[in-house]
Amino acid sequence: GAGVSQSPSNKVTEKGKDVELRCDPISGHTALYWYRQSLGQGLEFLIYFQGNSAPDKSGLPSDRFSAERTGGSVSTLTIQRTQQEDSAVYLCASSLSLAGLDTQYFGPGTRLTVL
Amino acid sequence: SQQGEEDPQALSIQEGENATMNCSYKTSINNLQWYRQNSGRGLVHLILIRSNEREKHSGRLRVTLDTSKKSSSLLITASRAADTASYFCATLQRGSNYKLTFGKGTLLTVNP
């Protein structure tokens, strides 16, 4: 079946502009995660959605970052007033259920470049 | 500091040789997972080892876990050029059921 998809695959924007990144999880997966990976670094947890529960936003680096998940499926990560330090690959993952005991399946990522 | 720290940061070997990567962590964990990443894009899950397990195998992969030393190793046997990638360990800390903490990874290069 189809895996996790993300769009766009690449995004170049100017400092100060807003960007929206989209994630389509695997159908039926109730858990969705956003991570950020800066150059040469590991993944940094941003936010976690599980069903209709309130999301865990503890990893969002500033109030310029927000995310929503509509209808328990598609998720959008929005970065307002982008800064150069926001440049990174943004990865989305989904898993079948709540538990981290389940495998997280990752999308190909969106490479964001802020000029 | 990172919960998971891989070592070495980079490893270059010849095809057919074995590759060993290590991961150390600081706090108690529920499980530890290894992922592979090609060309800085999506990650692929390789193997998960639970805190009460000591060793797991999957094909050419062998993972060990030593909770007393808070360390894990990933062994890839009979490496192939296609194994060239970055390898990350990720820990699920005890008390959490979803938040994985990733290390910075080991860049493995397998030369034909």
Shape of chain A, please? globular
Q: What is the count of helical runs of chain B?
A: 0
- For this structure, the quaternary state is heterodimer
The biggest beta sheet of chain B reads:
6 strands, mixed
Class computed from helices, strands and strand pairing of chain A: mainly beta
SSE topology string of chain A: EEEEEEEEEE
The helicity of chain B comes to under 10%
**Shape annotation of chain B:** globular
Largest sheet of chain A: 6 strands, mixed
User: Count of helices of chain A?
Assistant: 0
**Low-pLDDT segments of chain B:** none
Determine Rg of chain B (CA atoms, Å).
13 Å
SSE diagram, text form:
The complex is a heterodimer of chains A (115) and B (112).
Chain A lengths: L4 E3 L2 E4 L5 E6 L6 E7 L5 E8 L14 E5 L5 E5 L8 E8 L9 E2 L3 E5 L1
Parallel strand pairs in A: 2-10
Antiparallel strand pairs in A: 1-3, 3-7, 4-5, 4-8, 6-7, 8-9, 8-10
Chain B lengths: L4 E3 L2 E5 L4 E6 L4 E9 L5 E8 L4 E4 L2 E6 L4 E6 L8 E9 L6 E3 L3 E6 L1
Parallel strand pairs in B: 2-11
Antiparallel strand pairs in B: 1-3, 3-8, 4-5, 4-9, 6-7, 7-8, 9-10, 9-11
Essential attributes:
heterodimer; A: 115 residues; mainly beta; six-stranded mixed β-sheet; four-stranded antiparallel β-sheet; 0% helix; B: 112 residues; five-stranded antiparallel β-sheet; 58% strand; globular
What would you say this structure looks like, in words?
The complex is a heterodimer of chains A (115) and B (112). By secondary structure, chain A is mainly β. Helices cover 0% and strands 46% of the residues of chain A. Chain A is built from no helices and ten strands. In chain A, the strands form two sheets. In chain A, strands 2, 4, 5, 8, 9 and 10 form a six-stranded mixed sheet that branches. The N and C termini of chain B lie far apart (36 Å). Chain B contains no helices and eleven strands. The A-B interface holds A 4, 31, 33, 35, 37, 40-45, 48, 50, 56, 89, 91, 93, 95, 98-101, 103-109, 111 and B 2, 4, 30-31, 35, 40-45, 48, 50, 88, 90, 92, 96-105.
